[in-house]
Every structure is written in C-alpha cells, then in structure tokens.
Write a structure and sequence with these properties.
Blueprint lengths: L5 H32 L2 E2 L8 E2 L3 H6 L5 H36 L3 H12 L6 H12 L5 H8 L13 H27 L3 H9 L4 H12 L1 H16 L3 H6 L11 H10 L4 H27 L3
Length: about 300
C-alpha cells in the first residue's frame, strides 16, 4: 500500500498554510472577538467594558427593548429583499445562460463577457450608475418619461419603487455570476440525452423540463442557496441609493447593526445582533448541505 512521505505531507501543508493564516487573521479571530464583545456592555467611549453575559441577546427578544424593534424591523426588510431578489437571480440567470448557450460560438464569448462585466465593479460604482439613471428629478429614465409626456416615477423616494430600484440594480450587478455558473452546468449536460429526446419526439420545452433541469439540479440548488445568503448580506445598495428610505422602509438589518455600532457606539449590542444574523446564515448553510447531499 502506498504511503505518503513526510516531504509530500509538508509540501501539501505549505500550500494550505497561506489560506489558514488568512482565515485565522481575518475570520476566525474576529468571530471569537465579536462573540466576546457580545457578552459585554461595550461602549466605544467607555474604557471599562462590563461583563453582562447573555443580556445583549435577551434584549433582542425583549419586546420592551429598542433593540428588539431594531433587529426584527431590519430582519423584515432584509427578508423582503430576499423574497424579491432571489427568484429573479435564479430564473434570470438560468434564462440568460440558456439564451447564450444557444448562440453561435463567437457570440457566446462576447455576450458572456458583456453580462459578466458588471459583477467586476464595486457596489459604489453600481450605486452611482443607477442613481444617475433613477434620480427622481434629474435621472435619465424620468427625463425620457417627461419627453414622452408620461408621469415621472419616484424611483428612490417612494414604495414600492424604492425596492424595485434596489432589486433591479442588484440584478444588473450580480446576474453575470449566476449566469456563468449555469453556463458551466449546461455544458456538462450530455448531448446524448438531447439526441435521445429528439428521437423520441420531445419538444424544446419538454427537453428543458425533463432533461436540462434535472441534470443541473445540484447547480440550481447551489445558486439558490448562495444567492439567498448573499441577499441576506445586502448593505451597499440601500445605503447608497435610498439611505434606508422612504423613512426606514428599506433599512436592512446590516444597516441597523452598523448604526448601533458606530452611531450609538454600542459594540456589544451590535456584536450580538451580528451573531444572531450569523446563526440565520448557519441555518441556511445547513439546509444547503442537507439538500445537496440528499440522495436522489
């Protein structure tokens, strides 16, 4: 039986070592430190941090505490965004992948690059572009509406248009990533299955339903779960585009956590809220593992 030499083990460990160092510095240590902070009354202006145990967590579930409203209102708005955005991120991403896969060879690369380019820019650039397009008074879209003698739309200052604007900007920004994942999955589907379906008289729609979708089911589940997790972590789009308005109707959970940490200076409360949000992410990850590992 072949035994791995110590030199081979050392070489493998050296390849993994940079990742482990970065993981420890930028993820593991901050998580542990954040958990420690969540157990204290941690005021930024007070050098003394009193240990309070689980009190910060209890305040989140205490209906008489302002932290309860702050957390669950933010969570509600975050869930709204997830409900609005995730189906589109999955369906439109798959639709674009199917469309691009049906194009001739040269055009595939051109359109794949065009749709993926927005994913490579930062959220601040995305916000600037869509603010320029959707500003109520000077936005390009409302200017065209005025030329056509149509009423202007308060894209960023009224509901439901504020959510529509945030979802559209997010879709434009991130859809390229899901599209590329779906394209790779579609390329792995055996052509023999399509040929057999054609010989049996299956239409394009039937081949999509009975061959394509079952074949890429693991990828669809992956895209669904990762899109949900990414949507839960929304911050930049509502912060830069609507500032949480109108009122606080688009103020998501991460915005409330940041405000609690740096405006109210209560890092203990903010850390407790962050870890509660992390627990939601863990539950989603567990569901992802259960679904993807389930036997067909």
């Amino acid at each position: 039986m072949y035994k791995t030499s110590w030199k081979s083990k050392l070489t493998s460990s050296l390849f993994v070592l940079p990742y482990l160092i970065l993981f420890t510095i930028f993820l593991f240590i901050p998580i542990i430190y954040g958990a420690w902070m969540s157990l204290h009354n941690w005021d930024l202006l007070n050098p003394v941090h009193e240990f309070v145990g689980l009190k910060n967590y209890m305040k989140i579930f205490d209906s008489s505490s302002y932290l309860n409203n702050l957390f669950f209102e933010g969570l509600k708005h975050t869930l709204l965004f997830v409900i609005f955005s995730v189906p589109l991120l999955v369906v439109v991403g798959l639709g674009l992948a199917l469309l691009i896969n049906s194009l001739p060879g040269r055009l595939k690369g051109i359109f794949r690059t065009m749709y993926f380019i927005p994913y490579s820019v930062s959220v601040s650039v995305v916000a600037i572009i869509w603010l320029w397009l959707l500003d109520t008074n000077s936005g390009l879209i409302n200017q065209y509406l005025q030329v056509l003698h149509l009423p202007i739309i308060p894209w960023l200052t009224d509901l439901p248009w504020a959510w529509v604007s945030i979802v559209i900007a997010t879709l434009w920004w991130t859809i390229g990533f899901n599209m590329v994942i779906f394209i790779n999955a579609l390329n792995d589907v055996s052509e023999e299955l399509y040929e057999a379906g054609s010989l049996d008289g299956a239409s394009r729609w039937q081949r999509l339903i009975y061959i394509t979708l079952p074949s890429i089911k693991p990828t669809m589940l992956f895209v669904l779960i990762t899109s949900t997790i990414a949507s839960f972590n929304i911050y930049g789009q509502p912060y830069l585009m609507t500032r949480g308005g109108p009122g606080t109707e688009t103020k998501v959970l991460l915005m409330n956590i940041v405000d609690e940490a740096f405006k109210q200076r209560q890092l203990g409360n903010a850390a407790a809220m962050s870890l509660m949000m992390a627990l939601i992410m863990i539950v989603i990850s567990v569901v992802q593992l259960r679904i993807t590992n389930r036997k067909e």
